[in-house]
From TrEMBL:
The keyword Oxidoreductase does not apply. Residues 4-58 form the HTH lacI-type domain. This is LacI family DNA-binding transcriptional regulator. GO terms for molecular function: DNA binding. It comes from Limosilactobacillus alvi. Keywords: DNA-binding, Repressor, Transcription, Transcription regulation. It holds the Pfam family Peripla_BP_1. CDD domains: HTH_LacI (cd01392), PBP1_Qymf-like (cd06291).
Amino acid sequence: MAKLRLEDVADAAGVSKATVSRVINRRGYLSQKTINLVERTMKELNYRPNAIAQQMTTGKTQLIGILVPNVANPFFGELASALENRLFKMGYKVLVGNAQNDAVKESRYLQQLLNHQVDALIIATHNHNVEEYQNANLPIIAIDRYLRQDIPVVQSDNYAGGKLATETLIQRGATKIIHTDNLPSNQHDTQRKVAYETTMRSHQLTPTTYLTNFYGDHTDRVNVFNQLFDEHPDVDGIFASNDTDAALLLQIAHQRGYHLPNDLQIIGYDGTQASQLLAPDLATIVQPIANMANVAVDLLESRLKKQPLPASVVLPVTLREGATLRAK
Ligand code: RIB
């Protein structure tokens, strides 16, 4: 049987070759009716566009590389999912890398993504010294981290979030407030810690921070948090820099007999759907994850069209009330 050609699809669908090509490459204005018709015809004929030929005509692979520190973390899992959803609707496919805190792994992923001729990259990892970012000659958007002067960053307002969490605990009567933070972190989410410390001092309160390793195992966190309660049994407020840590602190506090929110109040950070489902009592600072993904994709589109971009976009955070906080 002769190999199917683009014109066979065009004839069967009753449209021009150019329309079939535009549907395949998602170029120019197309009504949903035309997209459906051409896609249905391709399916009926079992026609598969040749990716290499496609790439040669458009100069594009319609592939976007996404690198996150850890897909198992609900924040990054939900972020990657929101990015993929939006990009897929736009006709892209994504390749997602789980960089962890391994510069060699991140660099290999990057080389691989560049070898696959991705059209652009969205980067939300923690490594700051990966050489490929300096030389990568293609559109890049960063989320939550600084990569290079000309690479725009999409972030939530980490300083405002840290301040809101700390002010809220103080307003609800806590005075011995401890912050837990992760290392490595980046310049942006470190702002949560800076805001916590500044707010504490502005209320003549002493800041204390316990650090955990973002990539460390569960037992390490349990040990650090138990140490926190051993060393500060009178702690009456905790601001945790992410919801998974906040949920663990909540569990340990219950085991140790604290009654929340009467003798201890806890606020997390992130506000993921997973945390809302698994720890519905947890009050938290909500990052607008879906909006961060949308803005990153908007910026990517503008960059692909060679339009000028802002150095950064900072999105507002909100407080989600929960039973781990006293009422206003
Ligand atoms: O939970 C993961 C955390 O790491 C998030 O708060 C995100 O902003 C990143 O810094």
